[in-house]
Every structure is written in structure tokens, then in C-alpha cells.
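Thread: Modeling a multi-component assembly for a lab meeting

Hi all, long-time lurker, first post. My supervisor asked me to bring a structural picture of a complex we are working on to next week's group meeting, and I have zero experience with this. I have the sequence lines for every component (541 residues in total). Could someone generate the structure of the whole assembly? Inputs are pasted exactly as I received them:
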Amino acid sequence: MHIPDGFLDPKVTTSLLGAAAVVLAFCLAKVREAITVLKPATVLAGAGKIAGNLAGSFRRVLSFEGENTLHKMGMVAALIFAGQMFNFPISNGTSGHLIGGVLAAVLLGPFAGALVIAVVLSVQMLFFADGGLLAIGANIINMSFFGTMVAYYAYYYLKKVMPEWLAIMAAAWGSVLLAAMACALELALSGTTTLSMVFMAMIKVHAIIGLAEALITLSLIKLFRTTFKEAI
Amino acid sequence: MKQLLWFVLTITVLAAIFASNSPDGLEYVADRFGFSAQAVERGAPLAGVLAPAAGVAGVLIILGIFRLANFIFKKSVCLIILSIFIASPIMAARPLVTDDFYTVAEGAYELEIGYASTQNQLLLANTAALSFKRGFSAFFDLGFELPYTTSIPSGMNDAYLHAKYRFWQASDNEGLTGRIDFKFNNGNINQGLGSGDNDYCLMLIYSKQYGKGKAHFNLGHVNVGMNAGIQSDDYLAYLAAYEFPIIEGKSDLVFEYVANNALQPNPAFIQIGGRIAMSSVLKLDAGYSFGLNSNSIKNSLTYGLHYEF
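Re: Modeling a multi-component assembly
Sure thing. I ran the full set together rather than chain by chain. Output:
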């Protein structure tokens, strides 16, 4: 579901680039808060000596747990990257691939998850020509914001009323639909096509892709919680 | 972790081999509604590369990005360490950071002025500091320290108040002293000066003569952030120093080891320095310190004077 350049018009492209920047900055702030500890820099110099705090902005220190979290984020990102490469065939000559938003969000939380997906999308865009340079804003909003952050809250509230495995599957399926709807809306707003035509078509094809997303997400989460429990 | 990496690489290669070439959901819709031709085709470094190889390269790029993030966050750690160790200039026995068990004689004053130039991988920081003490009894002195940073941003840093009480003395050269340091949050935190919180430190100081020289051992508990709103993160400071006279009463060589357990691995540095007595009351000193691990300063040069009256 990587939108290439040319599908969206400049006004949609630029406003989504701005929106993506805001979302990522927010996520980065949240993640930074989580992986660092506040270390008042004027810790007495080993002896209760004068210790000048040089820069107030450098008062956060990467914690031991934070370092592990970064490793974990890297591993999950690599796995999702691999997963997104696998285009599985669905009906009538069409294929689908994993988005991995719910996978990332359940394993890492909504903010780290959204960052991970954004990193994967950026690498695909820069190195693999997968998704447009300018359309990266739209892709981040669709898959990183709607497909990860928003889907995480769906999972979070669904978990309270149903077993967790069902909540994961429902959220994963919903995340693909949500991203597809956002994508259809952006295409329609750009005047590329009309909403009435593209909306149902996108939903129909992604409802099937979403089923695979749900199954893959659930099995990978299970795998992470059992086999790779120590690694993560 | 290794196991997981192999799993990811295996998945990547398999995914690359078995991936379907059919259009994905969006491409299918674009084809159907006739706007797929609008897509701008462009190249990319790994776009045409054999899929499994490109996939493995992509995985490595992604892991590299998170490595880099780790490194960048670590870098900001360096700055903190720097400020942990910056400006250790002023204490009873300059250039040592380690304290000795002596207190300033009753009614006497002690003034120390020091300058430290401290470097780590990122920046050089210069700090001048002034310490003033008065002996209020044979066992008790009280003093304060005012540090001034001349780096950018420059200005006053957090000030310290010290109270030192000698409660046991076996001889002229052996004894036990307790010290309390209190740090005020008078620095301008918006300018990056000071930490914005009050700290206190309880220090136990033991000195003893070994051979010609004197050894000093300090063990302290530092309480960070007494005031509300700042996360408290206490740690232990441990220091050892050895002073060796080259010419009795005229000049000394000093060595010391300073460390604390605020971070892992423990920030630690070694200082080598010397002191020359210009008169019975005035001493000049200089010292060079170097860090022992990535959490420590890279190196630091300090010089100053010690005056008693």
C-alpha cells in the first residue's frame, strides 16, 4: 500500500508531509522519554564537588533498559521489513503484504511502534523505490499513524471486551482497512479518482489482505512471546 | 538475540524468493480505475538488485539505523558525564578531588581559586571556581563554593555549601572526618547552567600515613534531587588519593582515583598532579586527569592556587 509519487496532488502531499512530521516528532519525544532517565547533570563530581551542568537540554541519559528497547525496536523493524517484502497472492492476480503496524504496536507500544514503521517505510522509499519520495508523508500517516497508533488503541480497548488473541486479530484486520480507507480518501482528495469509485474497491481488496495481516500478526506476536522471549 | 537475527534473515530470504509479483492492493485498484500510469517511476540504490540480497541489505540498513540511534543517545550521555566531572578544582587539597581529614584551623580562612579545562569527544568546557572556608572550631569548618562556567553558555553554576566535622583523630596524619555538601539550584537551568535541583552528599573521609606519603579515602552517598518534581537517583561516590612529598613541605606529587556508580560502567578517572609551595601559606598546583571508560571525561587539565590566612 505504498503510494508512489504522482498519485497525490501537491496540496495533499505537503499537508500530509507536515502532519507526518508532527506525528513523528511527538512519537520521538515519547520514545525518548521512555528510553532515557532524567539524570540531573550536576551530580556532584564524585565527591560533592562543584559540577557545572553544561547544557540543560542534555539532561536525559539513555538507560540500560532504554538500550534494550532500542535493540528490540531494531529487531522488530527488521522483521517487519522482511514481512513487508513477502507479497502473498490473493484472488484474481492481486497480492498483498504485511503492514506490521499492530505487530509493532503490540510489541513496542504505539509510539515506538509508529517510529519503527516510519523507519521501515523510509528505508523502502530511499533504497528500494517503494513508495514515493514526496508521498512518504501520506504513507507514514496511513500506515504509521492510522495503521499503528490508532490501531493500537483499537487493540487496547478491544482487549478489554474479548480475549487478547481476538483483539490482536481484529485490530490487525482493522488497521489494514483503516490505512486503505485513508489511502482512498487521499486519492479522492487529490482528484486522482472519485471517492465513490475507489473507496469500496480499496476496502474490498484490503479486507482480504487484512485477514492475512491478522494471521501473520498473531503468529509473530505468539512467536515473540514464546521462542524469542529472551531476545526481546 | 542472535537466534532472532537468524530468524529475521531467514524470513527475509524466503520472503524475497517466494514473493508474488502480482500487483498489490493499491496497484490493483489503480490499474482498475486507470490511474496507475500516473505513478512516477524512479530508481533507488537497491531497487534492481537480486531480491534476497537486497532484502538482507535492507535488514542490515535497518539494524544500522537503530545502532546509530543508540550511538546518538549515548553521545548525549557523554555530555552528562562531562558535567559530572567538570570542575573538580576546589577542595582542601587542590588539585585533588579527594578530600583529606583536616579541617581549617579555628579562626583561620582558606581560599582556593581553580580553573579547569575539561574535554570529551564533543566539547571543551572551561570552569573557574572559588572556594572559601573558615574554621569555626578545632574540629569544624564551614565553606562555600561558587563555580563559573566560561564555556557557552556561560555564567554562574549551582553553588555548594560544605560543613566538615573531624570526629576522630589518632595522630597528625590519621583520622576520620565527616562532611556534608549541600548544592543549591541557583544556576540558570534555561541557559544550561545548574541542574535545577537541590542535592546533598554525605561523605566519610579517612586519612592515614603510608610510608612517606599520605593516603586519603572518601566514600560518599549522593542524594540527587531533594526537591519535588525531579526524579531522584542516588548514587555512591568513591575516591582514593595518595600524596607523596618530593621535597618535604615544598612540593608534592599527587595521584588519585575518582569514581561513582551513577551510571554503568561506573564513571571513573585518574588524576596525576603536583603542588608547589610558594610560601608557607600559598601553594600553586596543577593536575591532569583522564577518563577510564566511555562514561567518563576524555581528559581534563586543572590549575589553581591555595591560600591560607
